[in-house]
UniProtKB/TrEMBL annotation:
<protein>
    <recommendedName>
        <fullName>Trk system potassium uptake protein TrkA</fullName>
    </recommendedName>
</protein>
<feature type="domain" description="RCK N-terminal">
    <location>
        <begin position="100"/>
        <end position="222"/>
    </location>
</feature>
<keyword id="KW-0520">NAD</keyword>
<keyword id="KW-0812">Transmembrane</keyword>
<keyword id="KW-0406">Ion transport</keyword>
<dbReference type="InterPro" id="IPR006036">
    <property type="entry name" value="K_uptake_TrkA"/>
</dbReference>
<keyword id="KW-1003">Cell membrane</keyword>
<keyword id="KW-0633">Potassium transport</keyword>
<dbReference type="Pfam" id="PF02080">
    <property type="entry name" value="TrkA_C"/>
</dbReference>
<dbReference type="InterPro" id="IPR003445">
    <property type="entry name" value="Cat_transpt"/>
</dbReference>
<dbReference type="Pfam" id="PF02386">
    <property type="entry name" value="TrkH"/>
</dbReference>
<dbReference type="GO" id="GO:0015079">
    <property type="term" value="F:potassium ion transmembrane transporter activity"/>
</dbReference>
<dbReference type="InterPro" id="IPR003148">
    <property type="entry name" value="RCK_N"/>
</dbReference>
<dbReference type="Pfam" id="PF02254">
    <property type="entry name" value="TrkA_N"/>
</dbReference>
<dbReference type="GO" id="GO:0005886">
    <property type="term" value="C:plasma membrane"/>
</dbReference>
<keyword id="KW-0472">Membrane</keyword>
<keyword id="KW-1133">Transmembrane helix</keyword>
Length: 344
């Protein structure tokens, strides 16, 4: 929504109840008047006094600039500014885009897409808002929710006929919010080829994925520690530290345990610890399949944070990879159970 409100910026973060904004903008246009000037020269000449340059990113390297640093074409500039000073700042960097009045949303039948369409209609009052949704029942549902002022198209967003019917060539902005990265990417590329001015594909950046990963592990570990903490076992009873350590050990599949005398431990405790280790191996798959799609993003970036392997995907989609691994996890316990039973 912030990027729709501030076209031309590749990243927008509202701070202090929207009184201040953190913006990232490319200095890569022929009309970027700030290019070739030092940071010290910008205030008063190009920028309002309420604009502060925080960082520059150049050739893959980010740094905090001094007053003597020169802004070069191709730089990514990060600033903090007030909404009132926004117009002058965007103009100085050659971005004079106006708020879009013709918008197409791909994947609008999901929770994210439906909420986005409702907010766009309420806040911007766009002249033309069209939503493409693959599922017929979902398309009928959002048609009832959004009313007759929004055009709902049921079909595949990668189908040229559907894109032609949506008239994406005349759209100012296409927003792709499906749960599949590939669909978002190709829909954006097809829209660009047809003449769409801007495309937006929201999702997790790598830094956000790195933050979500430890938070998800911590939350699940605390939940997994509850049965141990509430049990009457002498090593866990009302001992939060031991319970959390045992749960985290199981979920991270380290194989370590604080249990002493496993042969005499209660069967319920042993079963729960075994389940924690089993669940630990597929937790990231569950997050990718169940949680992230509801947020309108794919789990591939999150999967990348779990491994140092940067090779190509074995299968073309994260969902296929996750389901294949999940199938192995389900079949393996069944196989070992049968093998144990047959061995007597």
């Amino acid at each position: 929504m912030q990027r729709l409100r501030t076209p031309g910026a590749f990243d927008v973060v509202a701070l202090a109840d929207r009184r201040v904004q953190l913006l990232g903008i490319h200095c890569n246009t022929e009309t970027c008047s700030a290019s070739g000037h030092g940071i010290r020269d910008l205030p008063g000449r190009f920028l309002d006094a309420h604009v502060v340059v925080l960082a520059l990113a150049r050739e893959g390297r980010a740094f905090v600039p001094t007053g003597d640093d020169i802004i070069e074409r191709g730089d990514d500039v990060f600033v903090v500014t007030t909404p009132g000073a926004l117009a002058g700042f965007m103009d100085a960097f050659g971005h004079k885009e106006q708020i879009a009045h013709r918008i197409v949303i791909v994947g609008g039948g999901g929770n994210v897409g439906l909420n986005l369409a409702q907010q766009i209609r309420r806040r911007f009052g766009v002249a033309s808002l069209k939503v493409i949704e693959a599922s017929r029942p979902r398309a009928e549902f959002i048609a009832r929710e959004l009313g007759s002022s929004v055009v709902i198209l049921q079909g595949n967003a990668l189908d040229r006929e559907v894109l032609g019917e949506a008239n994406v060539g005349d759209a100012e902005t296409l927003v792709a919010v499906t749960s599949d990265d590939e669909t978002n990417l190709f829909a954006s590329l097809l829209a660009k080829r047809r003449g769409c001015e801007r495309t937006i594909t929201p999702g997790l950046n790598l830094w956000q994925a790195f933050r979500i990963t430890p938070l998800s592990w911590t939350a699940v570990a605390l939940f997994g520690a509850l049965p141990l903490f509430l049990s009457d076992h002498s090593q866990f009873e009302r001992n939060a530290n031991n319970a959390v350590v045992e749960a985290m050990s199981g979920l991270t599949t380290t194989g370590a345990t604080i249990l002493v005398g496993l042969d005499h431990a209660p069967p319920g405790i042993l079963l729960w610890c075994a389940l924690l280790q089993w669940m630990g191996g597929i937790e990231i798959i569950a997050v990718a399949l169940a949680i992230l799609p509801t947020l309108g993003v794919s789990g591939w970036q999150l999967l990348r944070t779990e491994s140092s392997d940067r090779s190509e995907k074995v299968m073309p989609k994260v969902k296929q990879i996750a389901l294949a691994i999940f199938g192995v996890y389900v079949r393996l316990p069944c196989f070992t159970r049968r093998a144990t039973a047959s061995s007597g």
